Amino acid sequence: MFRRAFWFTAGAAAGVWATTKVNRKLKQLTPESLAAQAADKAVETGHRLKEFALDVRAGMLQREAELEEALGLDAPVDPALPAPRRTALGPGGPAAAPAHRAHPHPTHPYNRNEDH
Q1: What kind and span of H or E run contains 8?
Q2: pTM for this structure?
Q3: What are the backbone dihedrals phi and psi of residue 87, each rounded to the nearest 5 degrees, phi first?
Q4: Could you tell me if 33 and 27 are in contact, meaning their C-beta atoms sit under 8 angstroms apart?
Q5: What is the distance between the alpha carbons of residues 29 and 34, in angstroms, rounded to a whole number?
Q6: CB neighbourhood size of 38 (10 A)
Q7: 29-86 per-position pLDDT tens digit
Q8: Which one is predicted more confidently, 65 or 92?
Q9: What's the longest Cα–Cα distance across the chain?
Q10: Following DSSP, what letter does each residue of 75-102 receive, concatenated?
Q11: Ramachandran angles phi, psi of 18, nearest 5°
């Protein structure tokens, strides 16, 4: 009698466990759940990319400081010397700029940005 009761209880418990397991898996495979999982992964990937970009930026700044130190660019400037002429086009000024950069506006009437 106890043997039958034991196996009956064990079977019922196994059935409840299996049913619960299957229902959980089915809930994970619903479209809403899959969309939420994908969104979570996208957010996590975005955070990792941001961390990577910050690490790259820090490395760039560190390397730039090393290069400036090696080239002596961070040395104090003598106030008696004239300051070097710097423009957006570089130290040579507009005369040293390539022809395609000399004119900021294109000569043709079509503007690609009009469509956007």
Answers
A1: helix 2-28
A2: 0.44
A3: -125, 175
A4: yes
A5: 6
A6: 10
A7: 899 999 999 999 999 999 999 999 999 999 999 999 999 999 988 766 666 766 655 5
A8: 65
A9: 108
A10: SPPPTTSPPPP-BTTBTT-GGGS-HHHH
A11: -65, -40
